Amino acid sequence: MADKTAAGPRSGKRQRTRDRIALAGVALFREQGFEGTTMEQIAAAADVVRGTLYNHFPVKEAIVVHWLHGQLAEALGPLMEEAMTRPTFLARVATLLDASAGWWEQHRSFAAPYVRHRFQEVREDQGEEPTSEIVPAYEALIHLGQEAGELSTAMPAGRLAAYLHFLSLCALLDWVANPKISLPLRYTDALEFFMEGARARKGRPR
To answer: Rounded to two decimals, what is the model's pTM?
Structure first.
């Protein structure tokens, strides 16, 4: 994925400012390390005053989340097209998770701040940054799986998508905490666990 943010729905003056700050922050994180970069340095690099920076991003972790979601927005369309060439729900979702694992393995230094902030947002039920666009993608694939009889319809596709998303975040968190483990393997475990609960079964309500 290229180091740029998506256009279209993400455009607008406020969004452009957030994108500029995020790009400046990520450049500094790569050069100096996440922990070694201060908010003041990011403000200077983005040519904004500190008040503006904190208005958009109260903490450095939020910058990582915003930037990563921009990367995802750029890549998701082609990834979904590739996924839709696969014959089953399991294969389609595996396509997205395989791409995610490859990306994270190249950007491991951003994983800890990303996961930390995502779970913090859930705990506090706040934060300007919306849930990742991967959730609607999961929902679309789950809906197709339900229509095909692969997945149970006892639970709405949107709720199942949220569960799958948090399972993938837990897999990512495990990988961050245990550097020697395989992220693709953890994603496989998460997907298998999801399928155990979501798979349509004979003799039980779909």
So the answer is: 0.82
